[in-house]
Amino acid sequence: MTQLTETELFSAFDENANVKHGLPSAAYTDNYFFELEAKHLFANAWTFVGFAHELLNVGDIIPLQVAGQPLFLVRSAKNKIRAFHNVCRHRNLKLVDKSHNCKRHISCPYHRWSYSLNGDLRAAPFFGGNKTEFPQDFKLEDNGLLEVPCKLYHDWLFVNLNGDTESFDSFIEPLKKQLADFELDDFVVAASIEFDEIKTNWKLLMENFIEPYHVQFVHKNTTSQPLVDHYIVEDGHCLGSAVDLTSEQQHKAKEGTLSVSSRYLTLFPNFVLGVYYPNQLGVHLNQPVSAGSTRQRRVIYQHKQADQSTAQIEKIRKLWISVHKEDHEICERLQEGRYSTASGEGGFLSPHWESSVRKFQELVADSMRPALPTT
Hints:
The chain is α+β, with helices and mostly antiparallel strands.
């Protein structure tokens, strides 16, 4: 793909037609395109990275990677979750290699430089010769960890590697608008699901969630939500679909299937939220690993007054495992299809059911255009 210009890559995608092409296959298979996404898409966005409930105690620390950059999240002494570049300022060793509680200090195992939970450098033993001696013009206060903006919305953590991007308030506003009739604070963690790496590009998982077109075919045994009752949600970078079911439809639904009014919402690039009325939320964390691989997790939230037993929660968890496996199989086959020369122009998108997918792909393309030669 390194030989392709912007025009060559997006020529079919940019055609002015009622039925539009999707992104070209290189956007899903090419390693160079994947590397450019890290630098020009994820590094310039509010990226969803984790869950606050996993950092309950002061000193809890979690390493992660965003846009190819090693970072870590830590709950500081002031009970605030912060994000830092995961490198020691001395020799740039990766400081945190596994989730744990670091007590009150983050210490480098190489030369024992130590930092507070606020990122301040507290000790650099023997750096100037003797244990507490420093070289001329070296000051602890000038050499703390480099912080990354980190914001919390409900239980969900977002980081921004580029301080020049839109404000977090602007980023989250369309989601808040969609959830205006929901009191998020009334929902608590009920269960989580960890999936191994899925052999598909992260965008295919996002696109699959955004559109309802596939539901009656792929999920015919796990959901009872007729396609004709769905509608598209498209509000800037908040994209997805929704379905409103009558009480009669819910009553007639096949037992054990998902059969409630729902909203399927995303925030570009990688935040995914399912709202299942009246008592359940589900959030996916899609973490790109390579051009052809993504790691996915799901956290299930229940209303605090739902009063569901452990057995009922496990039943819900198993239903979602089944739904995800159906999606994963499809997305892996979508990925396999992208390696065909026949998929170079990206297939076609339904102007009715996949307009929100098209918008998602336009956001991807617009993020990438500045990184590509025009001629």
